[in-house]
Amino acid sequence: MHKATRFRLEAHPHIPEAIARLEELANDLFYSWDHSVRGLYARIDLPLWQKVEHNPKLFLRRVAQSQLDEAAENPAYLSEYRRVLSNYDAYVEAEPGSEVLEKLDPETSLVAYFCAEFGFHESFPIYSGGLGILAGDHCKAASDLSLPFVAVGLLYRQGYFIQTIDAQGQQVARYKSHSSDELPITLVESDGQPLIISVPFPGRDVFARVWQAKVGHIRLYLLDSDTPENSEEDQALTLQLYGGDSRTRISQEMLLGIGGTRVLAALGIEPTAWHINEGHAAFQILERCSQTMVATGLSFEAALEAVAACTLFTTHTPVPAGHDIFPKELMMEALGPYLEASGLEFDRVFALGGRHNNGGTFNMTSLGLRGSRFHNGVSRIHGGVASQMEADIWPQVLPQENPIGYITNGVHVATFVAPEWSSLFDIQAPNWKSELRNPEFWEFVDKIPDFHFWSIHKTLKQQMAEFTVERLRRQHERNGTGYSVTKRMTEKLTSLEKDVMVVGFARRFATYKRATLIFSDLPRLEQLLTNPERPVVLVFAGKAHPQDNPGQQLIKVIHDLSMRPSLMGHIILLEDYDQAMARRLLSGVDVWLNTPEYPKEASGTSGEKAAMNGAVNLSVMDGWWGEGYDGSNGWAITPRATELDQEFRNREEARDLLDLLEHEVIPLYYSRAAQGYSEGWVARSKASMKTIMPRFNAQRMVMDYVSGYYQPAVQQGHRLMANNGQLASELAQWKEKIRSAWHGVSIQVHGCVQERCKWDDEVELTVEMELNGLAPEDVRVECVVTVECAGTHGETGPEHFYLQPVPGHKGKKTLFSTSVMPPYPGLQTLRIRAYPYHDALTHPLEMGAMLWA
Ligand SMILES: *Cc1c(COP(=O)(O)O)cnc(C)c1O
To answer: Which of 207, 285, 395, 554 has the fewest C-beta atoms lying within 10 Å of its C-beta?
Structure first.
């Protein structure tokens, strides 16, 4: 048969003058969190809006002229249009609040935020999971707060893959290219020409053009190697997120870190604090050192001090897959030409990524930590875990004392809280948007009448069920599943008047997240789910990385269980999890389940989103839930000790999970009175919403970054760079002196220390130090007091006392002494230690050197 050539032609409508600003709104990611902006498109043609996957730009290109004309003449539409625009204009014009102004003066400060992925909305697919969504939420909250803030990333034309699950339960990964004119971005120009930056690569330069995305108040710059200056191979460098091999990865990271820094310089943007969000972007440190050396003539070491002083590095996972490690040969080959062109020495740079026990490789996390003076993990538990994992960066310092802190992740409320809830808040507590960080304010949730609260939940649950059924049908029709099977699969959700309890589990299928833990005792689970009086439906969704076979195996296991006749309709597996599906599931389920292997869930954020919509968390005490759970707002599974055998832990924690479901969760849900809902359940749901909303939202998170890191980083950067980097130079020279002398420094207790005294006596402490050429001012000698066995006073320390050099002491050694009054009653432990100290240090222990007497 003859096949005719097909041409694609897209006939674009004219946008009528009366609604012309729909185009402007389509170019501001404001739409990604503002439901009423999205409503302006959806109202014009709902089926098309769904077909274009909620993409405003694509919508405006494909919508029929007649429908636009109709909207432009419809008074109701026009009045909504004007309302939405005046709201938008007010948002864009808002100035930073006093709390921000006190900490970050927009005249003199600017934060640059680098990340490999950004998840704003399903229409802009340059994210894969939690890290990207978090970066998107960070930008959105920075915009809400009008922070002086700019973000840098890569534009992936194909983004992350699209997932289908076939009839055998196999994940199939497909990639779809997005042309730039359907994304909410504009090409960045300089002097009327597209701005192009380049980075030296082996045997050639690689070029990138630059796109700008508008996110309310802030700008995101995205580098794109798909430009005619590059070879075909190089054009594909930024094609896919987390695709290719380690050479692709290092190339992308060079573009992000080095290229991204060059973009800001080319645009005349001069950040005063730099936030490296995960190791992928850590090469920016090298480019900034090189730029600083050129501008000031400082040595590499001095430039590194100046650069690190205003840099924050955030680590996001203890799981090895999240930490890029490159072999030395690859580093030499890929980075060599750049380093040579920039006058940086390979060995010195390579040392920044070295590890204690792994001399032959380069670790991007180590580079991030050595090239920054501010570092954090993303929950209290993870901060501790990261301190342990990265302890060898500060070899003589105890992990619990090293400079890694934490800020617990939060989520962007407007993005993830369903509009039905925000409308209710508008009525019940009109200024809720400005009280997002005030836990007392959120007590108002308790005042919402139960029936009202529950009816909103039921509406959202209905929407979730319709969405789930629709998606499930589509997926199974394609796979050729028979009608009767699909019908049985969906019948629990189509007869929601029975109000079946629905449990959601959706996130990346990484093995540590243990998606199948709940199936550990299948007969018992089956009884729980299929009890005719109290049935339960489990809904699963998530992607596994295409190279993660064990992750894909989890999908198959769940698929097979969902097809078992005895479980049919009680286990549902949806394909192609994305942000749109997340919003539906999170706001519609009753219970949000999370069963990670402790302590590998650094934070997790989906449970926060669920809670803000009134879902109740049932989760292992890991990540954010370690701080979020208060006994009344959900259920917690206590992880077994990590020293125990993994299979044993899985079994025990699975039993806890089923015990909780059987004895607490399901009975509470179904203890319904005549009004049709369980009062006890509504109480828990309200507790979940009101306690988690004010503590785990992205504005709280970003303000913690402002106070804890951005403000100090700006100050420390200014301090070290004043007078052409004088202090940075001094500090670098001083560190060099310490490094070469420290191996010969020693400390000993001088004389004997009393073992008993009266509580108001003073105790003399003296140590004798061999300083190996260092001055007494180069070290801080400190006595640390802790309580071993506390009575009712409860305090256990530590308290710190400094020992001072003893003047006029003759001899080779230097004496330091002090007299202390015991800070605690009874038995306490005194330990004396010394570490190098200089006033210009950002953290007193940043050198990682310490000696104990
Ligand atoms: C919130 C979110 C995530 C992160 O989920 P976790 O449970 O924290 O791993 C991943 N993907 C999407 C689409 C999300 O919205």
So the answer is: 395
Give the pLDDT confidence of 260-282 residue by residue, as tens digits: 999 999 999 999 999 999 999 99
CATH class of the domain whose range is 745-852: mainly beta
What distance in Å separates the CA atoms of residue 202 and residue 358, rounded to the nearest whole number?
Answer: 25
Element (H, E) at 593: strand 591-594
pTM given for the model: 0.97
pLDDT of residue 355: 83
Hey, which CATH number is domain 440-696, 2.60.120.1440, 3.40.190.10, 3.30.450.180, 3.40.50.2000?
3.40.50.2000
Separation of alpha carbons 417 and 399, rounded Å? 38
Q: Which of 605, 612, 620 to mutate to test the pocket of ligand 1 (most atoms within 8 A of CB)?
A: 605
CB of 507 sitting under 6 A from ligand 1: yes
Atom 1 in ligand 1: residue holding the nearest Cα: 606
Can you tell me the distance from the alpha carbon of 38 to that of 711, in angstroms, rounded to the nearest whole number?
35
Domain pair 98-409+703-725 / 440-696, same fold? yes
Best mutation site among 121, 134, 592, 606 for ligand 1, i.e. most ligand atoms within 8 A of its Cβ?
606
Which ligand 1 atom sits nearest the alpha carbon of residue 581?
Answer: 13
Residue with CA closest to ligand 1 atom 8? 604
The strand pairing partners of 311, in sequence order, are 274
Q: Mean of the pLDDT values across residues 591-614?
A: 98
pLDDT of 1: 56
Q: Cα of 514 to ligand 1 centre, how many Å?
A: 15
Q: What mean pLDDT is predicted for residues 67-75?
A: 98
Does ligand 1 come within 6 angstroms of the Cβ of 605?
yes
What separation in Å is there between the alpha carbon of 135 and the centre of ligand 1? 12
Render 713-776 in DSSP notation, one character per residue. HHHHHHHHHHHHHHHHHHHHHHHHHHHHHGGG-EEEE-S---S---TT--EEEEEEEE-TT--G
CB of 606 closer than 6 angstroms to any ligand 1 atom: yes
The verdict on the CB of residue 130 being under 6 Å from ligand 1 is: yes
Q: Which atom of ligand 1 is nearest to the CA of 577?
A: 13
Ligand 1 within 6 A of 582 CB? yes
**Phi, psi angle pair for 570, to nearest 5°:** -100, -15
CATH number of 98-409+703-725: 3.40.50.2000
Of 14-23, 161-170, 304-313, 672-681, the poorest mean pLDDT is in 672-681
Is residue 125 left, alpha or beta, with left meaning phi > 0 and alpha meaning psi from -120 to 50?
Answer: beta
Range 437-445 average pLDDT: 98
Residue 592: left if φ>0, alpha if ψ -120 to 50, beta else—which one? beta
